Amino acid sequence: MSIPAHQLLKELQTLTTRDLTTIDGIGSILAQNIVDFAHSKQIVHLAQKFENLEKKGIQILLEPSKIISSEGRKSVCITGSFAISREEIGELLEKNGYKIVNSISKKTDILLAGESAGSKLSKAETLQIPVYTDYQALI
Fold first, then answer.
1. Which of 24, 75, 84, 124 has a CB 3.0–4.6 Å from the CB of 70, allowing a cystine?
2. Which one of 3.40.50.10190, 1.20.1260.10, 3.30.70.250, 3.40.309.10 gives the CATH number of domain 70-138?
3. In whole angstroms, how far apart are CA 84 and each of 34, 102, 135?
């Protein structure tokens, strides 16, 4: 099913950070970035251009791509200290398709362990969960 481009952009502009943070894998900072993007002058202008084209009989349609469910993404738990904040690392990983989780369990796919990782590292080793020390290796 195709969607007119201007309609998609206008619908994107109706979303709030609250709406977006209810989506699994979208945190408050990413949600705010999406809202800011949707309301940027460039996107508002682009939506108007698409709408004007449609009034002239030219319709730009978008084909929805296959959406990856949260079950299809690898879950990553982040622990310890890094050169940048864990929140920033989490956002980078989410942008690259990972699901960020707060605790280690048998369902966790990867532990990203920085300095002073502590008990989460021990638990990951016990559960034989792969451990990475460099977030860039996951991107």
1. 24
2. 3.40.50.10190
3. 22, 18, 10
